[in-house]
Specification:
mainly alpha; 2 domains; two-stranded antiparallel ribbon; about 10% strand
């Protein structure tokens, strides 16, 4: 069969307006795939046990949220992560010493994992706040 397929993916951004609920998906994105690409994508969605549109949305949003879009984001995320890890390790080490115990390796790994999970969001938040402050001051 040689028909072209167009798949609509719902975006997670609502249209501005009074009657719209926050977070209600009202935007669509269309894409064209070759028949082989469609088979590949459908197979991946089936493996994830998700409807195709949900799998596409999740995959697109995960890729968008996990990857820095700007080298500055990456640098800022890493700087934030180093600061966060150091402060948390110093605090946990001091607390363990005060209690007369040692920090467990698991607690060190947890601090690192929590930091890695948050660093890109924190960098983006810092950049947004910087841009807002810059806009307010008119610079």
């Amino acid at each position: 069969m040689n028909t072209s397929h167009t798949t609509a993916v719902l975006a997670n951004k609502a249209s501005p307006g009074k009657d719209k609920k926050p977070g209600f998906r009202t935007k669509t994105i269309a894409m064209r795939l070759t028949p082989d690409e469609l088979i590949e994508v459908e197979f991946a969605a089936e493996q994830a046990r998700k409807p195709l549109s949900e799998w596409l949305r999740d995959t697109a949003l995960r890729a968008t949220r996990e990857c820095p879009t700007d080298p500055l984001e990456l640098v800022l995320a890493e700087l934030w992560a180093r600061r966060h890890v150091l402060l948390n390790l110093f605090y946990a080490g001091t607390q363990a010493t005060a209690e007369g115990s040692a920090m467990s390796p698991e607690s060190v790994l947890k601090i690192g994992d929590r930091t890695n999970a948050r660093k890109l969001d924190e960098a983006r938040k810092m950049l947004r706040e910087f841009e807002l402050a810059k806009d307010r001051s008119g610079r």
